[in-house]
Structure prediction request, 334 residues.
Amino acid sequence: MRRFFAPVQLTHAPARELHNGSFVAYAEVPARAETILRAIGGAEAPEDRGEAPIAAVHAPDYLAFLKEAPARWAAAGRSGDAIPYTFPVVGRRALRLDRIDALMGRYGFDATTPITADTWAAAYGSAQTALAATHAVFGGERAAFALGRPPGHHAGADYCGGYCHLNTAAIAAQAARDAGHPRVAILDIDYHHGNGTQDIFWDRGDVFYASVHADPATDYPFYWGHADETGEGEGRGATLNLPLPHGTRLDAFRVAQSRALDAISRFGPGLLVVSFGADTWQGDPISRFSLTTSDYALLARDIAGAGWPTVVVMEGGYAVDALGANVASFLSGF
Ligand SMILES: [Zn+2]
Prediction:
């Protein structure tokens, strides 16, 4: 199984995030990628396929913002990472976006996702790993792994959040569409709902989005991922949300994943993208499911058994000491 990672992805290293009312150490650390690399025996550097496949998913003004925000933040006299603290919930008239603080709230939906001077390059590298894995599958690989870090599934077409800046799964799925696959499916099995991915494909019938995740009634991102969210317009019925309660173990998770795979099978994709998060592990510091390391191999075997060419992109997982083993277990199922 080919695996992709670019060293520049390690450079994104915000100091702190606002979590449950306190500034705490940033959980999405570079060491996550380093421990995964050690456990899977390294990875190839991705070819640089440029910005066009990223711009096929993300808005040009948002991409410009990601590149320019750190310099504008510094120009406003701020030290440290750029972080939003006010959000435009009232839309009575066109927003004035000439001040960096207004831009931060416009293009970010939470205060857990700081932007540093290195964020754009790292997120760009992460997107290139997703494209490299997708092209490896185009080339005949049965499955390929993108060590996406920073992760992607909370990022929408024109906003960041949840440690995510560029939506790697969406970029992979769109690349497959643009390469001629008429139907592509995304299976998201991170602990958290992939609100950004859902939003990007919400009104499209050509990309099916299925997610197994912690119930947003109790968990981040709260506003999205409820079972009654099924898509709109041409996308009606092409979104499937399967929220699960705290304490979920393999048996219940596997039943939900099977439901997702059955729905994807009825949809009939030519290619599958898996948003894989290991924050469903029993010891994850910010999550509350109870999967074990060996469970991941079983879950992956169920996915591989469905037979679609599969691109796996890395999402969350914050128990750094166990993360390598959990990812290696998952990939062993392919
Ligand atoms: Zn997560």
